[in-house]
Design goal:
The complex is a heterodimer of chains A (253) and B (680).
Chain A: E1 7-15, E2 24-33, H1 39-52, E3 74-76, E4 79-80, E5 102-107, E6 115-117, E7 120-121, H2 124-133, H3 154-164, H4 171-175, H5 182-193, H6 196-199, H7 202-215, H8 226-230, H9 238-252
Parallel strand pairs in A: 1-5
Antiparallel strand pairs in A: 1-2, 3-4, 3-5, 6-7
Helix pairs in contact in A: 2-7, 3-5, 5-7, 5-9, 7-9
Chain B: H1 28-35, H2 41-44, E1 48-52, H3 56-68, E2 71-75, E3 93-94, H4 106-116, H5 123-142, E4 168-169, H6 175-193, E5 196-199, E6 202-210, E7 213-221, E8 227-231, E9 234-237, H7 258-265, E10 270-271, E11 276-282, E12 305-309, H8 312-319, E13 333-334, H9 336-340, H10 350-365, E14 376-379, H11 381-394, H12 402-428, E15 437-446, E16 449-450, E17 463-465, H13 483-503, H14 517-536, H15 542-556, H16 563-583, H17 594-618, H18 642-645, E18 647-652, E19 661-666
Parallel strand pairs in B: 1-2, 1-9, 2-5, 9-17
Antiparallel strand pairs in B: 3-4, 6-7, 7-8, 10-16, 10-18, 11-15, 12-13, 12-14, 14-15, 18-19
Classes of the chains: A alpha+beta (253), B alpha+beta (680).
Chain lengths: 253, 680
């Protein structure tokens, strides 16, 4: 990459002072961005520029910058986490863009995720769904049986792990035309439904979590599969099918 | 110049009481638990506990304390407790289960941890950690944490960090995530029940002390800017480490020392600040506009060989982009870890491997094509060939072509490290299956932290510090896969017991009112500082100062340190701090304002950095992550001085870092003999 001149870019960024305020797109110019920079480093450079010009920097959520905490949440050029598959916004690098590009940057948009400021939204609904049933009812006293007293088939354990890798970023909701949270909820329901530890209270769990999901104002699933495409962790649609089965079974019994 | 000989001053004599219980090492914890005071369930309902930070230590403490019946108020700066930086831990968690039957035991885990820490940790605490480690795995499995399993359905282990047994439990390269989500689930259960009041997007701004006891905090709501008073009968700080004092590190962007530093300023001693872990395998810095460094798991060193060119002209040609490393002949490569440490080779501990990389780069053999030129190769070519050959044998393809062998070998490497290789490629745009990875050390973890006694209580009654925020278990160097173990041990199994012994005296206290003068005073100071930032109207951003602090720290207080450099760093940091307060610009107002948050955190780093350098200056020896150039053998190995420095330096705040006073807790080894740590 050395020797290549940096990128000059036009940014169209969503600015909104608060939840109740009206937002708008603002245009900014950033120059000579290294193609080796991450997208969020480019945002840092923009903010440094804004501060030096006496403006208020753009607020956006970010923390680990390694694709695992699930904080970052930008809608870039109409895609959750921008171009590229199986990555979060913080893992997106500027070499994916060309000199002279215009980049549109927006927050997640969903009724259940109100904008707090600029590009930051409130994802508290996810926490409330978790509190409704996203756990095994076991005390953390340490008075449990030996870990190897309960063998679990590797295939089940691996599938449970795959579901458990969800980072709760909300890209699935943001990209869904119905703003449905089915992929998020089904990942947690599946993780526990696949494991013997979670089976005991599987019925109650799926009922409670789905109820909370509906109460939060998320939309329904119409099987477009967009969530799976944009999910940075590749959470499979199979989980939604599994949750539907769990839900129907628990509704009938 | 700042006076250095503070310990010589005739000062009020403070004796640090570590409160280590009597008895043999393997009975201390059991006996102690049998004899501490308990709080009955009805009384627990009248007691409030504040926990600051919701990583593995804080999250697990919240869950257990709430289950026991206490009213927990939990605070995190993130938008959800699930995002604390424990989530980014990759490799695994140690536990003395001996499932592999390879001779592991509580004593061995204890021994390895003390030795790995270069004999600068407290025996009793480390032994307790080893004792409860096995239970952590049981607990996590019961919660539904999906650890890796073998085909028989039992838990799998891997080896880690240069020890001689396989005791590391893991969930692919996402062990920290799975453990934290387990913790978060346990917390969610209590949040649903109303036993934990969760304050997301809140930052602790100060500790409130009433009649000598920690009785609450002042917090800032990061969404509205509102300053809030929260009272409790005890305050637990679980806010992680201070690696971001270096600006660039593998820590999360928001990781900060503020909660730990605020309690330090209110009377909690700060221990061994100079003990910092620089991890050898991180992706090198690409340029000056970088905000964050990324770790590549230590597990890669099981199969990767680390090298630089043996000839300077080759290194120069690589840096200039004129030479492809694959074209350097075997005899022109310097596998310097294998050369210097034949018995441990590429699996020397982190501190040793990091220094060796720096030594080669400083000598002009670095291969970075970035601005610094600093990088070494982590090469999988021979592993690919070796695995490929093995596969050819297994499959009976005795006439396999070189290309077929390469293909088969790459598949094996992909199965083992695929997600890490993919991450590397995303960041660097280089394909590590084809060309060697470039790596360089980066700041990763801090062993130092708030001084605590055996109960994990700081020198402020009722104020506790757990997890990375305290100092107690890792000495001068932490072994891989031990941070997760300590966080969960402290939170699930240690603090919930020890805190009861203290709270037993509070059963008749009743709720602590928040209109006490101590709250007024603490709140007023917080408001003043915020107003000062917002009206300062200086000419540079917070990051501008943070980056300069990071440069001083990295160049003079980093992987290798000397007297002149440290003295200069102490003076430079003090000057920079002054400049910061005069010239920092914080835009916006007191509502949601990430720049204001950063300003407060960097103000604390600017104080901690100076104490850090002072601690490094005082410690005239090389041990673990602390390497003093004056104290090394002829071939560049660390020279520890057990006669003079087998102690914990515990610093007492006296108005500013230059006036801090050092107290010593002598480290007494009754069960482990102190030896030279050799990996040759």
């Amino acid at each position: 990459m050395s020797g290549k001149k940096g990128l000059d870019l036009t940014l169209k960024v969503w600015r909104q002072k608060g939840e109740k305020e009206k937002g708008r797109m603002e245009t900014y110019q950033v120059n000579e961005i290294s193609p080796d920079s991450s997208f969020l480093e480019m945002m840092d450079i923009l903010n440094e520029q804004l501060i030096n010009e006496g403006d208020e920097p753009v607020a956006f959520d970010h923390d680990c910058r390694e694709g695992i905490c699930g904080s970052c949440s930008l809608f870039i050029n109409g895609e959750a986490h921008g171009p590229g598959r199986a990555i979060t916004t913080c893992q997106l690098h500027m070499r994916e863009f060309n000199d002279g590009d215009t980049i549109y940057i927006e927050p997640w948009r969903a009724k259940a995720f109100p904008v707090i400021k600029d590009l930051i939204v409130d994802r508290g609904a996810f926490d409330r769904i978790m509190s409704a049933g996203g756990f095994v009812n076991v005390n953390t006293s340490g008075n449990t049986q030996d870990a190897n007293a309960l063998p679990i088939p590797k295939e089940d354990a691996d599938k449970a792990f795959d579901a458990a890798t969800c980072i709760g970023c909300g890209a699935c909701v943001a990209t869904c035309k119905n703003a449905s949270a089915m992929l998020f909820v089904s990942a947690k329901v599946s993780q526990f439904a696949l494991l013997p530890q979670g089976k005991v209270e599987a019925s109650e769990r799926v009922q409670n979590m789905v109820k909370q999901m509906d109460d939060e104002g998320f939309g329904n699933c119409t099987n477009t599969g967009a969530c799976e495409v944009e999910c940075p962790k590749g959470i499979s649609l199979e989980n939604i099918a599994r949750m539907n089965r769990e839900y129907i079974r628990s509704s009938l019994s | 110049m700042i006076p250095l000989e503070t310990k010589a001053k005739p000062a009020r004599k403070v004796i640090l009481d570590s409160k280590i219980p009597e008895g043999s090492i393997d009975q201390k914890w059991t006996t102690y638990k049998n004899n501490i005071k308990l709080v009955n369930p009805a009384n627990k309902r009248g007691i409030d506990v504040i926990v600051v930070g919701t990583g593995l230590a804080g999250g697990s403490a919240c869950a257990t304390l709430a289950e026991l019946g206490y009213n927990v108020k939990a605070f995190c700066y993130q938008d959800s407790p699930r995002r604390a930086h424990s989530i980014a831990a990759q490799g695994g968690i140690n536990a003395a289960k001996n499932y592999q039957g390879d001779g592991d035991s509580t004593f061995r885990l204890f021994y390895d941890t003390v030795k790995g820490g270069d004999y600068r940790s407290r025996e009793a605490n480390v032994h307790r950690l080893a004792e409860v480690s096995a239970n952590i795995i049981d607990q996590c499995v019961a919660q539904g944490v999906p650890f890796a399993r073998d085909y028989g359905g039992l838990l799998d282990n891997r080896s880690f960090g240069g020890v001689q047994v396989s005791r590391t439990f893991y969930a692919k390269g996402q062990t920290g995530q799975q453990l934290l989500l387990g913790c978060y689930s346990a917390m969610s259960r209590q949040i649903g029940k109303g036993k934990i009041a969760m304050y997301n997007r809140h930052e602790m701004m100060d500790l409130v002390i009433v009649d000598g006891k920690a009785r609450g905090i002042i917090a800032r709501n990061l969404v509205t800017g509102e300053i809030e008073r929260h009272s409790a009968h005890a305050v637990v700080v679980a806010s992680g480490g201070y690696g971001n004092v270096f600006f660039l590190s593998t820590n999360a962007m928001g990781s900060n020392t503020s909660a730990a530093w605020k309690i330090h300023k209110k009377g909690a001693f700060f221990a061994n600040p100079c003990f910092t872990q620089i991890h050898p395998t991180c992706i090198p810095q690409h340029g000056d506009q970088q905000s964050k460094l990324t770790l590549m798991s230590e597990s890669l060193r099981n199969d990767g060989r680390i090298w630089v060119p043996a000839k300077k002209e080759d290194a120069e040609a690589i840096r200039a982009g004129r030479l492809d490393p694959r074209n350097i002949r075997e005899e022109d490569r310097d596998y310097y870890l294998e050369r210097r440490y034949p018995s441990f080779g590429n699996l020397t501990p982190r501190d040793v491997a990091s220094r060796a990389a720096k030594e080669r780069c400083d000598a002009g053999f670095g291969v970075g094509t970035n601005d610094t030129g600093e990088a070494v190769y982590l090469d999988f070519a021979s592993a690919i060939t070796r695995y490929g050959q093995e596969q050819a044998n297994i499959q009976g393809k005795h006439d396999a072509s070189a290309e077929e062998i390469q293909q088969m070998g790459k598949k094996v490497v992909e199965a083992k490290y695929g997600n890490l290789f993919q991450m590397y490629e995303k960041i660097t745009a280089d394909n590590p299956y084809e060309t060697p990875m470039k790596i360089y050390p980066a700041v990763h973890y801090t062993m130092g932290g708030v001084w605590v006694d055996y109960n994990l209580m700081t020198t402020i009654p009722g104020c506790y510090a757990i997890g990375e925020a305290n100092f107690s278990d890792h000495g001068a160097n932490r072994l891989g896969a031990s941070a997760l173990m300590q966080g969960l041990a402290d939170g699930y199994f240690v603090l919930p017991y020890t805190i009861g012994d203290y709270l037993a005296d509070d059963i008749r206290t009743g709720a602590i009112p928040t209109d006490l003068p101590a709250f007024d005073e603490a709140e007023q100071k917080v408001i003043e500082e915020i107003e000062r930032f917002l009206s300062n109207n200086g000419s540079h951003s917070v990051d501008y100062f943070h980056k300069r602090l990071g440069k001083i720290m990295w160049n003079q207080v980093g992987m290798s340190r000397n007297r002149a450099g440290l003295e200069d760093a102490i003076a430079s940091i003090a000057e920079l701090r002054e400049e910061f307060w005069q010239d920092v610009r914080v835009p916006g107002s007191n509502d949601m304002n990430p720049e204001l948050e950063k300003a407060g955190r960097v103000a604390d780093f600017l104080e901690l950095g100076e104490l850090f350098a002072r601690d490094a200056l005082e410690r005239e020896e090389s041990c673990g992550g602390h390497f003093r150039e004056e104290h090394q053998t002829e071939d560049g190995e660390a020279v520890r001085d057990d006669k003079k420095y087998a102690f914990v330096s515990a610093w007492e705040y006296k108005g500013e870092p230059s006036k801090a006073e050092m107290h010593k807790e002598d480290l007494i080894y009754e069960n482990i003999e102190m030896k030279v740590r050799s990996y040759k």
